[in-house]
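Lecture notes, unit on protein representations.

Consider one protein chain, 427 amino acids long.
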Amino acid sequence: MFIKNFFSYTAIFMFVLFVVVNSLALGQVGVGYPFLGVILLLSTYLFIATCPKVIIKIRKKNVASLIFLIVFFLYIFLSVIINTWDLSKLKALTIGTSGGILFSFLFGWIFSLCIDVIRNTSLSNRLRTSLHYIFLFFTLFACVFVVSNLLSSSSDRQLLVLDSAGAYQRPADLMIMSLMLIAAVSLVANEKNKTITFISINALCVSIVAMTLSLVSQLLGSNMGLVGCLAILIIYLFCVFFKETQKVINGVDFYLSKVLLNRKGNFWLAAIKLVLSLFLVFSLLVTLFDIPFDMLRITGYGSGEASSVNSRFAIIKKNFIDQLAYNPIFGHSEVETLLNTKGEYIHSFVLSLATHTGLIGLILFGLMMFFVYRERLRGTNLAGGQTFSLFRISIILFILLLGSFFTFYAWMPFWFALGLFGFSRHT
């Protein structure tokens, strides 16, 4: 049992190292692939070891979401092939480590297997706690190592790595994915050791990791990384410490409406208090390390404008109608190039689905998400404790909401979250 837990933590830490090397080697191709190879080897062993009798088991009650997922993927892949006849573009969209939706989904599912092993294998509390502390220690060390290296490469006039231009999106996406994973593992560990000391140390370590990754995202020039990491931290701490969330959950029958429409307002009151508290903590850290806000990209390096937000909305306003009108039924995977607006693709998850996959793709995606929520995220189908269940659905909703305003439909954090929480093996 120890071997399974050790391999699970090792696989997760390998992904942390993959994120680290990609943050330090901006713009380089093929960096960190050996870490992914180790993850695949370890996860293959875990998959076989935990399924000795039945290798693949599909629950009948969950089959609709799986069918629509497969149909949606096939539609996307066929659309790219028919529209471009370029296998390199198909590879980039499927298994590419910069925007591969299949790569992101499969690794999310692989890590859901690791989390399932950590939760369900029998291990002494002392050994389990020690293993988790070792994982947190090495994760913290890796994050500090990244910050120290990037700070030495930043400009004196603005908090930005000098050679990061155009290369920050990939490592920022990977950081969001890794923080999702670290927070999920910590919540599962809390289920096994419910002492206030352990839970507090866990929360402190996750907070430091999240704050560090937020700083790294700004060193690389990514506002999305900053917003994503801080929001995941807020959701994590909210699920851990605010007992008000339990008042809106009736047993294990967790329904989204009970949280969002809670008449007593405990959920939203707790959320407001937590956001304000974390904002103060983040401000204190920035002041402590003498990093003025006008050196951050999110403030426009002193201009007071979030230029990345403005440019995204400007592209939507300028090009969305024309790109949608090109082929509203089936869409086109290269529509921005065909309309002589190359590079000006729609930065919105839902809207880019409409322009690049058409009405059919949008309907397939909507049906898939409907059945994912109905079969896997709602009611008694939720696995694990109430806290972890709340965390899962909150992360998926947040990532989808964030992507709907700022990212392309191939945004890796969403597909990673879908594999990690939406199609996890224990649902």
